[in-house]
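User: Can you write out an input/output pair for a complex, sequences first and structure second?

Assistant: Here is one pair. Inputs:
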Amino acid sequence: MINESVEDYLGAIYRLRGDHQTPLPLSRLQEYFDFSRVSIHEMIQRLEEQGFVTYHPYHGVLLTDSGETVAIALLRRHRLWERFLTDMLQLPWDEAHEVACQLEHAAAEGVTERLADLLGNPEACPHGAAIPPHFRESRGEPLTTLKAAETEHVILRIWPEESEVLRFLKQVHLGPGSHLRVVQQTHQQTLAEVEGSVLSLPTHVAEAIWVTSI
Amino acid sequence: MINESVEDYLGAIYRLRGDHQTPLPLSRLQEYFDFSRVSIHEMIQRLEEQGFVTYHPYHGVLLTDSGETVAIALLRRHRLWERFLTDMLQLPWDEAHEVACQLEHAAAEGVTERLADLLGNPEACPHGAAIPPHFRESRGEPLTTLKAAETEHVILRIWPEESEVLRFLKQVHLGPGSHLRVVQQTHQQTLAEVEGSVLSLPTHVAEAIWVTSI
DNA sequence: TAAAAGTGTAAGGATAACCTTACAATTCTC
DNA sequence: GAGAATTGTAAGGTTATCCTTACACTTTTA
């Protein structure tokens, strides 16, 4: 039975996993949801019984095909609603994620596809995440891994989509598509040059900015 | 705490109540939700504790001001989403109600108001129900109460919005705004003349059609 | 390789929202 | 006014999803 909880878990596993072979440790889910270890474990067992994941004790979970199907459909709905909220309702892009978290569970397949059409079948959400079935070849690298250099970079994506980080970025007018150059890298902050002026980005913000060189 | 259940109950009370002084019998809620008498009663007590309703044993419930505020906001969201689904996503109007039941709980106030603007602040949902804060002076009378006569009537509203009834009406191209004249009234059906041809409407359909003479 | 860190799991609890059964109280109807 | 119908409510259950505590097992690290 697919309810909101099940969808949330499968969606989280999909978002958090790296490649498709390495199991996702339950501890990652624990910090994502901020639930107790016991609750996460309990739920994972339920998901395994229902055939949505395979569970490898001490290593983590992998989505089965059916689990992945559910997750992909969820993320598609989530990101389409985000586009709707920013593009059609002019909702600030830092607020769209949270509202979309509520809308994502609604809408049968027919509704989702009509929504996609209305939006012109967008390929990415306002934070730069690909909207399934579209894919992004490279997800780039976090800004914090870059060394100060002349190379110019473009922001591909903001991830994870934490409200505080999104608000910060919106305030300094930085988002997917923005160009920047790393001026200085320290433990506390990243200094980046954006359109002539230099911005200070706290580490927890900089590590959510995924860029690629251009 | 206002969760989906609470909203659903308050919305149902608002929809089902007649005037604003007569308490709504719990039996009405029981048939509306198809829950047991005990469950309805339990929930009503919880709602009373939270100050959303006043409960008058053997008579029914009344919404308090705070309960009414919640209900009105819910119905506004519900009907705006219905308009969005039919007007922007071209969803058939007989399917819009059920999808809107899922969307109605989402969307904070800001989002709702932007949605209303996008839709041009509509006054009624696709089934003819007024979108708060708009009001409808008269809700008319059910088709079943009419006698066969020369008088032409216009459909104001379909209510209650049961899928089967909505599908039937969509199939015969009848909806809010349609003009008709009652030709014959029996216990099983109502014969109505619509644009020259005569339609047979089963009683359970006819009693959901609220009309007024023109 | 031993201790530390991380992970699993048993036991017992809480809450919300549903259920049935059974009986009691009230209201309606003839 | 009495019996029928409706409504209230006590008692005990179920399910899903969370919780804490406590202890056991596995993996990682020094």
